Amino acid sequence: MSLASSRRMPRRLVIALSIATALTAGAAIGQDASSNTQPSSAPTRTATLQTINVTAEKRTEDLQKVPISMTVVTAEKLEAFGQAGDGVLQLASRAPSVYAETSYGREFPRFYIRGLGNSDFDLNASQPVSMVYDDIVQENPILKGFPLFDLEQVEVLRGPQGTLFGRNSPAGVIKFESRKPTQETEGYARVSYGSYGTANAEAAIGGKISSSWSGRISALAQHRDGWIDNDYTGKKDDLGGYNDRAIRLQALYKATEDFDALINVHGRWLDGSAMVNRANSITLGGDQFVPGFDRDSVSQDGRNKQHLFTWGSNLHLNWHFGDLNFASITGLERATTYSLGDVDGGYDASGTPAKASFTNRVTPFYSETADALPKDRQITQEFRLSNDSAERLKWQVGTYYFDEDIAITNFSYDTLNNHVLNGWVDQSQRTKAWAVFGSADFQFTDEFDVRAGARWSHDKRDFKAERFLGFTGPVGPLTSDPTDARWSGDLTGTWQLSKNANVYARIANGFRAPSVQGRINFANSISTAKPETITSYEIGFKSTTDDNKLRFNADIYKYNMHNQQLTAVGGATNVTQLINAKKTEGYGAEFDLEAYLTPQFYMTAGGSYNHTELKDRNLAVAPCGGGCTVLDPLNATGNALIDGNVLPNAPKWIGTWTARYGIPYGESGEFFVYTDWNYRSEVNFFLYDSQEFRSKPFLEGGVRIGYNWEFGKREIALYGRNITNKKVITGGIDFNNRTAFVNDPRVVGVEFRAEL
Using the 8-state DSSP alphabet, how is residue 692 labeled? Predict the structure, then answer.
């Protein structure tokens, strides 16, 4: 299929898919079918919800018994969301209170939970949402973008997780669990092709190597053709494409029930476009696209490219001594990247585009910059001792060590002088942190239990930045060496109302270690943020019906954060620096629902309301420098006072819904329809409030229609992502024009899957 034909493919097919979904799902509500299905691809013998086991508290437990607000995203959902090549950003708005965005393309996701996150785009940025992959924290934002494939599930833990996950988790934790090797031979292959040359190939195979060893190898390859024309250079389909590849190798040794060892090696290679910025795309005085905006074209005089390589390895050792368990988890992660983009998103007025009619893409001055990560080495070590989880008193104690060594280089280029280098900054940082922790869970009665935990953490950074070349000459070296040590912990009481329902109350605190911002291409000083602390209060309810056909969990929460670390990005000064807000308040409510409405009709739903508010009367930031309507009051120096503002990228409402309806056919086959929809309300991009730099409410949907046979071992399906072809502004740059980032267009394709 040519790219041209793939672009023409979607409209009629998507309309047909949408109508079929609505009719089939609607008919399902009243149908009493003779066969039962699970929320998987295959017909099964029962239509009841299965127990979901999680490791939110570093031991395997039933989701319904863990007194934490959390959502589990299953492997089937991940496969459906990711069919159009989406990376980890596919999790945005897929769970209550979870949002994500980026200004880097595919390699640097920024996550927010309950409104708490960090919009900093520096490669040294610290984030309050901790991402943990197979029990290894992924500290640098480049590591957080590892693709999602061959996963058991994703666990989203909302609220501070300071006891067991420690530093830099005041907002919450997102845990990724890959599928582990077993002695049984198993595997799968999945291939798909769709619009814009979007191709995905994913496969895994594993099984017995010997009586004591088993292994598993998993691999992923994702591709998209360039689909954005650059009218300045006259190049068709010049931007927007990528090649993203990843692999995971695992070996499990288990000779007895008293000891096992799991070795994991993984890597990722990415080549493609950095974020494609769109100059002057936002209307002055509004939050909509300018008339005639075209998502398929730009006019840029700067260059654009992105390369990434990451690899890592971890070793899990587990010993069992009677009713005691000892675990050692060792991790190594490394990364390098180079990302170059046309930041202003247009062309300088002195340039001459191939299509002179696009004069609205002229910018006051050019900005062509690159960020490189020549070195990122992270070592982690955790030891944990726990007792048998069957005991009335369950406890665990442990130690944790973290050592990170990174080097960052920031470049800028003279676009109009053959792109010669005109700015060069080196940053380096060594971080060492250690902690001791302990937690206990005591069952006072059959109806009441108490969990408590505490952690002592120590964190030290040694940072240096130096500018060798720039607009105002060399600067530095500038240094900062913040150190911090403190307690964090939690206390939870759980009351069992019935065998299938419980209510819990939880108080927890957490912190984020001091951060340093050294992006000094356009500044002469670095900035250091004090540690932020949070105390959160939460009341939750978890329940399952007696027939296991409906599961409903909900909670309400409130938090107070002190010295929140915020990043003042861009603005008229075009300087990025860290600041602290005296106080931030947040409160809200969340729910998750999972149900069989009929044996063939399965659905899930989730939603959240999140209120955030900054409380600092004197805190001010530089407003936009490219023309916008600032809604905040200004101080004597012309900066915007942000007291009372909501946090950036913090939607007040989030909703998600999925539904699957299957029609058994023959002895082992099934026709099915699957659809998923997610909604988020308006978001503001920056700390100051303006009429322009915000995103309208956004509802996005996907659909799959297909047939599986051999009890789900073979499947073919048509899919559509962003089926309404909604076009929305997802981010912006404000220093010299109203630059916008834009979501991807509709993608429609076909997929085949086979299992061993």
Answer: S
Tokens standing for residue 406: 């990174």
Place of tokens 């071992």: 713
**Smallest Cα–Cα separation from 300: which of 339, 341, 352, 345?**
345
- List, for residues 45-84, the tens digit of each pLDDT value: 468 999 999 998 888 999 999 999 999 998 888 887 777 7
Angstrom distance (rounded) from CA 725 to CA 717: 20
Cβ atoms within 10 Å, residue 419: 14
pLDDT per position as a tens digit, 107-136: 999 999 999 999 999 999 999 999 999 999
Scored b (16 or more CB within 10 A) or e, 62-91 reads: ebbbbbbbbbbbbbbbbbbbbbbbbbbbbb
Contact 407, 374 (CB under 8 A): yes
SS3 574: coil
Q: Output the pLDDT for position 102.
A: 93
Cα dist from 509 to 128, 489, 504, 512, whole Å: 13, 6, 17, 11
Label residue 50 exposed, middle or buried (CB < 10 Å: 0-12, 13-18, 19+): exposed
CA dihedral 480, 372, 134, 719 (to 10 degrees): 140
Tell whether pTM > 0.90: yes
Given this model, what pLDDT does residue 575 score? 81
Average pLDDT, the chain: 91
**DSSP collapsed to 3 states, 398-446:** EEEEEEEEEEEEEEEEEHHHCCEEEEEEEEEEEEEEEEEEEEEEEECCC
121 vs 141: CA distance, rounded Å: 9
Instruction: State how far the alpha carbon of 502 is from the alpha carbons of 161, 400, 450, 547, in Å.
Output: 21, 32, 13, 17
Strand duo 136-137 + 129-133: pairing:
antiparallel
Q: Could you give the CA distance from residue 704 to residue 80 in angstroms, rounded to a whole number?
A: 8
